[in-house]
Amino acid sequence: MRGIQVTEYVKGPLDLKIVDLPTPSPVHDQYLIEIHSAGTNFFDLLQIQGKYQHQPPLPWISGAEFAGTILATPTAVKSPRYKVGDRVFGASQGAYATHILAPERVLLPVPQGWSFEDAAGLFVTAPTSYGGLVQRANIQSGDWVLVHAAAGGVGLAAVQIAKAKGATVIATAGTERKRQIAKEFGADYVIDYRKKSWPEEVKALCKQNRSGNGKAGVDIVYDPVGMIDQSLKCVAWNARLLVIGFAAGQIEKVALNRVLLKNVSLVGLHWGQYANFEKETVPVVWNGIFDLISEGKFRGTAFRDESFVGLESVPRALKALGSRDTWGKVVVKIIDDVAPPSRTASKL
Ligand SMILES: NC(=O)c1ccc[n+]([C@@H]2O[C@H](COP(=O)([O-])OP(=O)(O)OC[C@H]3O[C@@H](n4cnc5c(N)ncnc54)[C@H](OP(=O)(O)O)[C@@H]3O)[C@@H](O)[C@H]2O)c1
After folding, report:
1. 309 lines ligand 1 (CB under 6 A)
2. 307 and 320 inside one domain
3. What is the pTM of this model?
């Protein structure tokens, strides 16, 4: 097999090297998978520089999200859920490679009709946004939802899920191209949040188009950036503000008097920890996502303005991701597959 192995921390993605390694054999609880596509994440960039919270002992293969086919089943699992040839997606250390070993708990079936490219970007973003909006913010039909960084990975998932649940979506993004993408994925209104006056624009939209308490602002804020304090200026009575991430690089301080005065809730979500602290919710969330896919209400968000084909293009893909110019999920086609034709989903 070939993989991008990190033997010492690097300054940036362009310093990464591909090496030949022995292809692993399936072990007692792990499948051997041939990777067709790998999804990139900002934490990959941090990890190769030694700056991430999870740093395995050197050497290791970088990358986390992948989609591919099962080559061999675990040797000690009596009735494995997947068989040789099945198409799966998931996440485990070592996705920037031609092959990977992974246990069943981190694998899901590629939805029917989905390309490996789109499936490789599903494992982190879709459940984060579904878990946030549905489990944590209790989204209801008729709600108005403000999605920040709406053309980013979790943002585009949030736009689609909010629309599928019958909400009106105001999407923010920093460039015209990203606002156009947010609209293509279903946003009703788009706003440039690089303008300081953006909370006024949200308020004006709600004042013009909503009634009752809704005239004051939105019911839900989905925030992967670190914009809760500003967003408190344009929320309705009883609003829920979802703390998803800090893409802007700073952990915010929030004026709590506004939380009291507006009778709102600040709600955190840490999707990765559901597997440890709330296992029973994980299939509930995935079944909800698979339902939306089979109803045609959720589609893949792979970035298509530029293509990344072959392991050799991982450094370029990571550089593009770090530049903030991409949208959706930046995915590398490790193998250059052609997308399958139909679009239905299989449930868990
Ligand atoms: N809570 C959870 O369980 C969970 C799960 C997954 C991800 N996250 C977090 O959610 C955040 C977004 O993840 P993602 O996968 O959507 O990332 P992404 O695809 O890279 O999108 C992030 C977006 O943030 C915006 N942004 C604002 N300030 C930025 C800055 N200084 N540098 C870079 N981008 C900036 C950019 O949009 P504009 O250019 O339009 O401003 C960018 O498109 C990350 O912080 C991630 O760690 C949390």
Report:
1. no
2. yes
3. 0.96
